[in-house]
Amino acid sequence: MIGAALEQAIVRLVEFDPEVWDAVRVSLSVSGTATIIALLLGLPLGVTVALSRFPGKKGVVTALNTLMALPTVVVGLVVYGLISRSGPLGGAELLYTRGAMIIGQSVLALPIVAALAIAALEQADPRLRQTAWALGATHWQASLTVVRECRGGLLAAGAAAFGRVFAEVGVSMMVGGNLRWETRNLATGVALETGKGEFAMGLSLGIVLLVVALAVNAIAVGLNPARGRRQ
């Protein structure tokens, strides 16, 4: 069955099956946008926490590490409650749209970006900031030096966040509705076909999902500056 599913996946991609490629487009656009939002919010948060000293810092780090394991169905339920017609944001009519999926996936990705950014920055050589200060750098300039040195780890944080949301099902199903040609992505397509008993079709979509995820992460690895220095 795996061989047949692999063959079917290749055929669907090569022949530009419109339904498969639409699911790929939805997956990339929604998860890509959610990852960008998470980076824009999570990186400043991670840098601030990692390079600052304040009461309760360990508690913040512990909370972010805990939120990395947020169940997708819990996030989907909370977002659903906020944007449903009876919710506080019901007037925006976001339910069963890609916008709702982006909101939910951003919530999933943000703690991953922040927590992994903190981990990467805290492993940096403390002499980096000390040297920058000795050369007359301000606090923010010294912090920027550390961030620049750790950009490989920060890129890995973004790749990990993308991988988490790209393959999730709970949020996309609950707030996206799995609508054909609108909010159906690769992950919800796999769930749908498997639920219908179409295991070969579900597996073929799963293979497509893995191929796309592999391609995106290969690009991220290629952009990693640390990789170039090792070579």
Which descriptors would you attach to this protein?
single chain, 231 residues, mainly alpha, 12 helices, globular
Report on the architecture of this protein.
It is built from 12 helices and no strands. The protein is mainly alpha-helical and about 230 residues long. The chain has one domain: MetI-like fold (Orthogonal Bundle). α8 runs antiparallel to α11. The chain is globular, with a radius of gyration of 20 Å. The model has no long low-confidence stretch (mean pLDDT about 90).
Which helices and strands, and how do they pair?
Elements: H1 2-14, H2 18-50, H3 57-67, H4 72-83, H5 98-122, H6 127-134, H7 139-149, H8 151-166, H9 170-176, H10 186-195, H11 199-223, H12 225-230
Helix pairs in contact: 1-11, 2-5, 2-8, 3-5, 4-5, 4-9, 5-8, 5-9, 6-7, 8-11, 10-11
Regarding quaternary structure, how should these chains be classified? single chain
Determine the strand fraction and express it as a percent band: under 5%
By CATH, the architecture is named Orthogonal Bundle
CATH class assignment: Mainly Alpha
* Total strands: 0
* CATH fold type: MetI-like fold
Shape type: globular
In CATH, what is the homologous superfamily?
MetI-like
In angstroms, what is the radius of gyration? Answer: 20 Å
Distance from first to last alpha carbon: 40 Å
Helical content band: over 70%
Estimated structural class: mainly alpha
| Total separate domains | 1
Chain-averaged pLDDT: 88
What is the H-and-E element order? HHHHHHHHHHHH
Low-confidence stretches: none
Give me the number of helical elements.
12
Biggest sheet statistics? none
